Amino acid sequence: MHGWNGQFLRADLTKGKTLVQKYEASLAKNFLGGRGFAIKILWDELTPGTDALSPDNKLIFAAGPLTALSLPSSGKLVAAAKSPITNGYGDGNLGTLATVQMRRAGYDAIVIEGKAPKPTFLRIDDAKTELVDCRDYWGLGSFQTEKQLKKEYQTSTGVVAIGPAGENQVKYATIVSQEGRAGGRPGIGAVMGSKNLKAIAINGTKTIPTKNPDDLKKLGLEAYREILKKPNYDFWKRQGTMATIEWSQENSVLPTYNYREGVFDQSDQIGGFLMEKLKVAQRGCPLCNMTCGNVVKDIDNKQSELDYENVAMLGSDIGLGNLKKIAALNRLADDYGVDTISLGNTIGFAMEASEKNLVDYKIEWGDYETARSLVDEIVYKRGKVGAMLAEGVRYVSERLGKGASRWAMHVKGLEMSAYDCHTTPGMALSFATSSVGAHHKDAWIISWEVKTGRETYGEAKVDKIIELQQLRGGVFECLTTCRLPWIEVGFELDWYPKFLKAATGQDISMNNLRTIADRVFNLTRAFWVREYGDHWSRKMDTPPARWFDQPLTKGPMKGSKLDRTQYDAMLQLYYNRRGWDARGIPTKKTLTRLGLQEAVHELSKSVQLTA
Known about the structure:
With 611 residues, this protein is an alpha+beta fold. It has three domains: 7-203, Aldehyde Ferredoxin Oxidoreductase,  A, domain 1; 240-419, Orthogonal Bundle (Aldehyde Ferredoxin Oxidoreductase Protein, subunit A, domain 2), CATH 1.10.569.10; 421-490 and 509-611, Aldehyde Ferredoxin Oxidoreductase Protein, subunit A, domain 3. Helix content is 42%, strand content 13%. The protein has 26 helices and 17 strands. The strands form five sheets. The protein has a six-stranded mixed beta sheet with strand order 2-1-6-3-4-5. Strands 8-7-12-9 form a four-stranded mixed beta sheet, with helices on both faces. It has a three-stranded antiparallel beta sheet with strand order 13-14-15. Strand 14 and strand 15 form a beta hairpin. Helix 11 runs parallel beside helix 13 and helix 12 packs parallel to helix 14 (368-379). The longest helix has 23 residues, at 510-532. The two termini are 37 Å apart. The relative contact order is 0.12.
């Protein structure tokens, strides 16, 4: 094989053993890598109904055929497992030197099974692997864990680690690398903690096998230069995703006060232009020349890496209009290894519950000191409040009752990303049908939607969502490379088949890549349905009631809300386009067309399939 290493590393923590597994070329052909490898392994090997935090769950770190090659933004790693917060498929990607070292060590994925009897980290040096007692590391933050491992081994060691949130199995704990690169917001860090696995430290010295290395080198140099020429490149380097604060405010989609509103009175105190004045450094993922990690000094005079999602969720959504204080909350979250998006949602929910007198604690909108204390309580599950909020907003809202579920901002248990959708039905549908729950990564349609007509519910939006799900959540997640060069500066998609040709020697067109993406997407949907069985219904693909029931009261879109009847019609149109039945379940015909005949037989054990 060229482009792929052709092998996985498997680690059984219960038995304390590792082994190298060769895989068939057909797996690479049909699923490509990254998310494709992850869902195929989970589908084939995980018993339906497995407790996500039991030793029987599998934790997968996967890369693709372009990962770690000298190509733009190819330093990405997919971390996946059955999610403890949704009980469906969960993953996230993060930029990390660990993915480069994993590929150079000779592996396209690492599959973690079982549970170590004591805190452990996995050390990988090419073919040499070792499970190391790390009780001295247990309790450390993710930042210090990585620093000490690099000091103990070498500075080039790639490290992925969890902090106390993962150790304590907070349902939205993440996996962290490089002091701010975090991934796996559906609780993949909690899965890692449940296995007593503190970190993975990797060094690799091999050359990744490619078909035409000279052509690949030439293409890579040309591609890097092409990105530098793009008109938006300079502004991107200045602000990265932080420019979205101003854009969201202008377009009434900035989540404010637990998604009650789409505008925030203090938006100018948390936006990209203020960030530029405070910026002291910039960080990025390996192999990237459009680094987006903007670093500021926070209220504690410590460095914090900011992007749009964490600033919106720990800022406007909780009514906090001080960027340095937001940065401190963000730094704590990254060090603790807890997802900033879900954390902001949870704190915002707690503030609204307090306002409505549904709980016996008091926390007002914008209350930084209490919010900061709440972060500690959640991470360490201290007291009744911390333990409850560590379960996520779906659990808390069901526990509180009294209509709280109607303003609990999640889909399938995963809290919303940072876009209010009172006025954007396409983005609402994108959230509702994402592969992992309410996440923007798979299909960020909102910018296109605002430009082309936010009030419509028709075919054009459905088709655009599917196109974006194919590209963002499919092609890029499987290759595995970052989507931002294409999205943010207009780096053309036709580069990627050329990269694949030089790397693998195979002619894999964009149409082929879209088919692979559809195969991965449908198998992921089948995984969800298999886990939920008869409890699955189209209600699973419906956004929060707040957006339908409570119109905006401020800003240029005042009075706007989603229309439930039109949304349901658009959802049905989406199902039709996908080849799914009225419940949102792939039909036998669709699964067979995509080469998923085995899934037809397996899924039929859980639900009755439509022909």
